[in-house]
Specification:
With 118 residues, the chain is α+β, with helices and mostly antiparallel strands. It has 4 helices and 5 strands, in the order βαβαββααβ. It has a 3-stranded mixed β-sheet with strand order 2-4-5, with helices on one face. Strands 1-3 form a two-stranded antiparallel sheet.
């Protein structure tokens, strides 16, 4: 799994923690933000300000500490990012969707190929 540099500002951490304290959900846009949040999150879901690198590998069976949902593109089969997506959604169902996408000749990595998963 590759590493990525991240920075969570105090202002961002405060906004996230305040909204979650009021019952709000944490929806990440993109796998980088998801990996960042899960790397810095405390076990109780608290998000501190932090900066560094993450090499976290999220795969089926992973117990999310803070992230409730994800908006991301349709990742290629057998990729580490597909494993991250499969941690939110049943891997077999995800692979079934991929088989349909290949059969129907969907274009991967295309503008507008986003999906919302929780």
């Amino acid at each position: 799994m590759h590493t990525e540099h991240f920075a969570v500002t105090q202002k961002s951490a405060d906004i996230i923690n305040e909204r979650r304290a009021k019952g709000g959900r944490l929806i990440c846009v993109g796998t980088t933000s998801c990996r960042t949040i899960e790397s810095v999150a405390h076990e109780d879901g608290f998000i501190p300000a932090a900066e560094g690198d993450t090499g976290i590998f999220i795969y089926p069976g992973y117990k999310f500490k803070a992230v409730d949902a994800l908006i991301t593109n349709f990742h290629l089969p057998e990729s580490t990012l597909l494993m991250l997506v499969s941690a939110f959604y049943d891997k077999e169902k995800m692979m079934s969707a991929y088989h349909t996408a290949v059969e129907e000749k969907y274009r991967f990595f295309s503008f507008g190929d986003a999906m919302f998963i929780e």
